[in-house]
Specification:
By secondary structure, this protein is an alpha/beta fold. It has helices spanning 26-30, 66-78, 129-141, 157-161, 169-181, 191-200, 228-248; strands at 16-19, 34-42, 45-52, 55-60, 83-92, 102-111, 125-126, 146-154, 186-188, 204-213. It has one domain (16-248): Rossmann fold (3-Layer(aba) Sandwich).
Length: 261
């Protein structure tokens, strides 16, 4: 059976999946996999599948925001995926973050609309500890420092990036100041949905984000986004997850292994 939106069937997607937002980033991320090939594209969902460490791994774009992210995670879980790493971009809230810095989100503020359909508002959106640890280790192994903390997931891109021209400008500015004082590092649009839907589906999820807009700076052109360190950290982190999972599994029961024959 083919899933309605992602247009994938069992066997076409790995148990481990990278989730960029932009379909245009999928081939770039997939180029770091072994024997990656394009599987299918439909709407905002483009999927490539290859392997890492001899295990099938996919890259599926989610599009922008919570609604399409929830659809992707739901349908990929239906096909057997159990580990998700969002690989995307974020704007800095903390002045400590510089352009190109790597952020690993351990939790996300639920300022989105989608998660309210899944859980009461006081249920936190939290990343899986194994995924967070692997991404931190992956960043270090790839030679990149990373910031670990909470991110803000918001549905409003332009109210967040251009608050001064909005009717609610004062509220928007005060809100960002409050989040900064609470230690929130950066703002993006998908992590809260990913974390909460994964929690409900008994899957693991984490986010590794590249800072593309520092405090007080202009966002670079889309083709010049500084995401190399983020991609390298994510790939190295996924390798560790696969290795750690393999070490915990009994011999002969390696999930997602690619048949070498």
């Amino acid at each position: 059976m083919t899933e309605y939106h992602v247009k994938l069937s069992v066997g076409e997607v790995g148990e481990y999946v990278f989730l960029p937002g932009d379909p245009g980033r999928v081939p770039l991320i997939a180029s770091h996999l072994d024997d990656a090939r394009h599987v299918v594209s439909n709407r905002e969902f483009t999927t490539w599948t290859g392997s890492l460490e001899g295990t099938r791994v996919s890259v599926t774009s989610t599009g922008i925001g919570g609604p399409s992210t929830a659809i992707a995670v739901e349908e990929l879980c239906n096909l057997g995926a159990h580990t998700f790493v969002r690989l995307g971009s974020a704007g800095a809230i903390s002045a400590e973050l510089k352009l190109g810095d790597v952020v690993v989100a351990q939790a996300a503020v639920r300022e989105d609309g989608t998660t309210s359909m899944y859980a009461p508002e006081n249920v936190p959106a939290v990343a899986d500890l194994d995924v967070v640890t692997a991404l931190r280790e992956g960043a270090k192994a790839a030679g990149h420092e990373c910031h670990i903390g909470t991110v803000l997931s918001s549905d409003g891109f332009y109210p967040g990036s251009e608050p001064a021209r909005m009717p609610l400008s004062s509220m928007l500015r005060d809100r960002l100041v409050a989040y900064h004082q609470c230690g929130v590092l950066a703002v993006e649009m998908e992590s809260s949905t990913l974390f909460l839907v994964a929690q409900i589906r008994k899957a693991r999820a984490g986010s590794v984000l590249g800072v593309v807009n520092a405090v007080g700076g202009d966002m670079p052109a889309s083709g010049a986004l500084p995401l190399d360190a983020t991609i390298e950290s994510a790939i190295a982190g996924m390798r560790r997850l696969i290795q750690h999972d393999r070490e915990r599994e009994p011999m002969g029961e390696k999930s997602g292994a690619v048949n070498a024959g």
